[in-house]
Amino acid sequence: MHASVNTQKCGLYTLAERVGALLETRHYTLATAESCTGGWIAQAVTAIPGSSHWFERGFVTYSNRAKEEMLGVRHATLEQFGAVSEQTVTEMAAAVLTLSDADVSVAVSGIAGPSGGSNTRPVGLIWLAWAMKGEPPFATCHRFSGDRQQIRYQAVVAALGGVVNVVDS
User: Fold this and answer.
1) Does residue 115 belong to any structural domain of this protein?
2) Is pTM beyond 0.90 here?
3) Which end of the chain is more exposed for a tag (fewer CB within 10 A), N or C?
4) Integer CA distances (angstroms), 98 to 10, 104, 155, in order
5) Where in the sequence is the domain holding 20, given as residue range(s)?
6) How many domains does the chain have?
7) Taking all residues of the chain, what is their mean pLDDT, rounded to a whole number?
């Protein structure tokens, strides 16, 4: 991923506007697959007037069952690697492109806390993946800090920053 967006100093609305402008300029559409952010990425982009021109749809797949049923994430992937893994988010990102007419996708799964963490998967561990039609998805792992709301916010900002980087590369 190209580091063209400093996501720590960019307001969420401004970042979502930038996502929309880039997508619209390139005649791309975006779709999302969200777990720990619960639709916040979709909410951020649909807060932008005219987003219907470039936002196609969002999937909120909080449970493993929803990931399997709605996105076709393989049960074996969830069993072997868990929901918070590179393998799961890359399957999510790829599935969104298959299940929609979108050109770009972003997927997120993580542990926002305050509970649910472990030594190997601590609170704040977030996996994000992006995909473009015709290209394989790729993922990044983040370790965010703060309370549940702060962790989720940071995940949304990182997700949108990644969309900018993918589309602008």
Assistant:
1) yes
2) yes
3) C
4) 31, 11, 24
5) 10-167
6) 1
7) 93
